[in-house]
Model the fold of this input.
Amino acid sequence: MISKLLSPKTITEYDRAITHLFLRYDIDSESNNNLEDICKKNNINTNLLVDLAECYNNINLAKNKTFESYQILDLIDYLEKSHSYYLNKRIPEIEQSLDKSFLHEKHSFNLLFIKFFKEYKKDIVIHFKNEEQNLFPFCKVLVNYSKTNSQENLIYLLENKNNVLNQLKNHQKNSEEINNLQRLLINYKVDSKKLSFFEVFLNQMSIFQKDLNIHAEIEDHVLTNKVLNLMEELDLKDV
Ligand SMILES: [Fe+2]
Ligand SMILES: [Fe+2]
Done:
């Protein structure tokens, strides 16, 4: 059980993958201060961060009521920070391992994976861009409209709602593609005493997949429900 009274150092010793969650919030995983103090100082929602960290051990938490109480804007903040972390740090690191494997190890499947990863990255970039250009702005305007009742917001919401509702409905499809990738990766596991670059790549991919799955579950189950409920509350759903 992860607690906000524990330090990032203790939490990440329990599960190294949580380092990646902390990094996108600029939290040093080696810090011995307790998480609550760090979050207070940096204006981070501590409970949300603890619940997200818990998802690394139990992804089903994202599907139940655990996240219901969080504000849409806090969830969007997590999703935006994650996109940026994945694109600017995680994917380049994984790509580097694959390039090293190609340069230094003569696996017959190297080229296949490089080609595969290129396509996979292209899909992710398009997916993220679409959310950043349509879904996230819509959510922010929706929240603003709920507070201000602005006519300008209302016009924007009415103009964009069908597109966003479709995007939310079709989101699950992307998660399935990720599962297909996972199956493919399992088949290519190799055995050796010293970790080869390719094994490092596999390892990084498996942690990244887990992270992406949590991210997608938050979008599918938590954000979608909250957005649909708020639209209903504001009489926007069937207009
Ligand atoms: Fe996303
Ligand atoms: Fe997504």
Remarks:
- The pocket of fe (ii) ion (ligand 2) is lined by residues 127, 131, 171, 174, 216, 219 (CB under 6 Å).
